[in-house]
Design brief:
With 233 residues, the protein is an alpha/beta fold. 33% of the residues lie in helices and 30% in strands. The longest helix has 18 residues.
Length: 233
């Protein structure tokens, strides 16, 4: 089953007085449970594509279905709810709240899910900080953590809402080689064990090598996609 379906999607915007066509007639189907990498040079449109899948932005033309839901015509509040229930985000700059501890950063998105009580929120915080190996650092703020530890907090936060999809935008870009390897192995293990779909925007050859499927994008167009490790098409 496809968790994401993109049909004839284009994205245009104005940059000052310049008209930019960031994506041009994109068609893409992404299977459930896959570890997918979207690769391309800077300015190719891969981050724009990730933002559209994440319902952070909307296409100029075309349709996007997330977990069977048509995003076309949804209000900002409806898109926010769809994101909350289906999508987790991991960014290269971590995007943690500096005044909150690791456990508070992980809990933050859970506060938006009204049916979760305090006990369930705390259970998830403890569970996912343990999964990423940071139980002992629950009370540390981001400035007391290394880059790799901060990215692990971001992974725990992304997982805590039980999303179907994790979107990772250059998650290893600000990490040293060894730390980046550890983060990628952790995400691959989560993908295998929990069957969570991972979609990466990346320049990192290590991500591409680990991917089940690799999509190449250039000048706003998909120019190739293949199965890397026996999955995908």
């Amino acid at each position: 089953m496809n968790i994401v379906q993109i049909s004839n999607v284009s994205k245009e915007y104005m940059l000052g007085e310049q008209h930019v066509q960031a994506l041009k007639d994109i068609n893409l189907e992404i299977e459930e449970r896959i570890f997918l990498a979207i690769a391309g040079p800077s300015g190719s449109g891969k981050s724009t594509l990730l933002n559209l899948i994440g319902c952070i932005d909307i296409p100029t033309t075309g349709k996007i279905f997330i977990n069977g839901q048509d995003t076309n015509g949804k209000t900002p509040d409806e898109l926010s709810e769809l994101r909350l229930r289906n999508i987790g985000f991991i960014f290269q700059t971590f995007n943690l709240f500096p005044v909150l501890s690791a456990e508070e950063n992980v809990e933050y998105p859970l506060l938006q899910i009204k049916e979760l009580d305090f006990t369930e929120r705390q259970r998830r915080v403890v569970k996912f900080l343990d999964i990423v190996g940071l139980s002992k650092f629950a009370h540390h703020r981001p400035n007391q953590l290394s880059g790799g530890q901060r990215q692990r907090v971001a992974i725990a936060r992304a997982l805590a809402t039980h999303p179907k999809i994790i979107l990772a935008d250059e998650p290893t870009a600000n990490l040293d080689h060894k730390t980046g390897e550890g983060i990628l192995e952790l995400m691959k293990e989560i993908n295998r064990k929990d069957k969570t779909t991972f979609i990466f925007s990346t320049h990192d050859s290590r991500v591409m090598a680990m991917a089940d499927r690799l999509i190449h994008i250039e000048d706003g167009r998909i120019i190739g996609g293949n199965a890397v490790n026996g999955k995908g098409s």
